Structure formats: structure tokens, C-alpha cells
Amino acid sequence: MSKFGLFLLLTLTSTLCFSQQITCSQADKQAVENKLIAIDGLLEKDFGKTLVAIGKTFMDTPYVAKTLEIGDTETLVINLQGLDCTTYVENVLAFGLILKNGESSFDDFTETLESVRYKDGELDGYASRLHYFSEWIANNEKKGLLKDITAEIGGKEITKPINFMSTHRDLYPFLKDDKNFEKVKASENYLNNQPICILAQDEIAANEHLIQTGDIIALTTSINGLDITHTGIATREKDGRIHLLHASTGSMKVEVSKKPLSEYLKGIKKNTGIMVARPTN
Description:
Elements: H1 3-9, E1 12-15, E2 21-24, H2 26-38, H3 47-56, E3 76-78, H4 85-100, H5 106-117, H6 133-142, E4 146-148, E5 156-158, H7 164-167, H8 178-192, E6 196-200, H9 204-207, E7 216-221, E8 228-236, E9 242-248, E10 253-256, H10 261-266, E11 271-279
Parallel strand pairs: 2-3
Antiparallel strand pairs: 1-2, 4-11, 5-6, 6-11, 7-8, 7-11, 8-9, 9-10
Helix pairs in contact: 3-4, 4-5
């Protein structure tokens, strides 16, 4: 087992003021408190620039998959020592919201992370986690935390069957429970009735000027049953181009893509384009 897995197993579970449980090692609790100190002073009027500044404090953090899939019941997992693409974006956004709201405690962070990670901001079992990223975008837009701007920058609506989790039940340990399985299927049925907007891969370069630093980028796919395969944060770098700040499965760490976003995507098998969500100022 990796040292990151050991950190997760040697966890302390505590109860928040709203009676939800969290799973967090002492090392990660300290990491959150250290991060709150490290980001102090990074707030800018442009919230997108704030998010990128916070995101870059995670540079070189190892990529670790399935950090939330632990234990027998769903808890709010706090883990800053190993991040996948989604938990990276969630943590950066949560720290940004903490900073914007003038908050600074560990409890403030856990409450904010829960509000970002779960349907309507409330942890209520495994199925309440926003597993599909298109739903993550839609639900966080409903909360007023961001806006899906894909249509505004040239995206087009599509419909696609979303059922990857229910058709690959063996990949998700929590889906052994029939109640979890039926609830996830219900979420998929809801998503199947909702079109999603995609900016096609071959149209990204022409519309790149409409993407801003701090926008959340979700990579769409032709894989059956899936909406999104990867996510990160847009950052306009010194070359004047939009790059992707993300927890990379290639380098296995948080980094800025060496190639601009439009060129980077061409090297990703089955990528069809992107969704773009802009956090609200």
C-alpha cells in the first residue's frame, strides 16, 4: 500500500457542527491549516486569478486516484496529500471561497468542501456525491458558485446516455449496496434527460480568447456512458495562451500543461471537446 493509502487508513473521524462525519488524518488537518496560512493575501478582485494563485500552491502534489473511495459509508474525506483531477478542483474552489468569504478555520473549510462536493451542498450517503462532472457543474451553478458558460463561447448542446457507473458496477465498491446502486441509477436517469453543452475540440483554438484564467475546464469524451473524463483550471500563461492547471495522470502530479489547452487536448484519446464553468466573483 502507498504512503497515501496509509494516511487514509490512519484516520481520525470527527463530527462537525451539522452532524456530518469527516475522515481526515492528523497530517491532512495540519495540511489544511497550513494551506489557510499559505493562501492568506492571495485574494484578488478577479476571483479567477485568485483560484489560479491558490491552485499553483499545490504544484507537484502527487496524483492519487480514488482517494474518496474508502471505508464502509460515505464520509467527507479530507486529503491534500494526494489529489485526483476532481478533488484538486474541489479543494482549490473550496479554499478560494474560504478566502473570498473572509473565513479561516478548519471547520469553515470542511463545511465549504461539503457544499461543493455534494448534491445541494449536503452529504447524505454515497449517491449524494456529485459523481458525474456535468452534474457537478449544473448543481454548483444552482448553488450560485459558478456558471456554465460553454454556450456563450460557442458550445453546442448534445444529448448522450449517461450510465457508466451502473453499467460498470464492479468498479465502484459502494455500488455493491443495492440502495446506493438504485440511487445512482436514478441520478443517471435524470442526467439522461438533460442536454449538456460542449465546445468541440476543433473549435477551442478559435474561441480560446473567450476563456478566462480561473475558468473550470471539463474534458468531454466519446466513451460510452461517460460525460467527462478529466478536469482542471484554465490559466493564461506567459505565452498568452490558455493552459490547463490540473492534477495530471501523465506526470502523476499537479502541473500546468506544457502545451496550450487546444493542442494538449489533441493528444487525449477519445476527447471530443470541453465544458467551461466560470466561478462567480
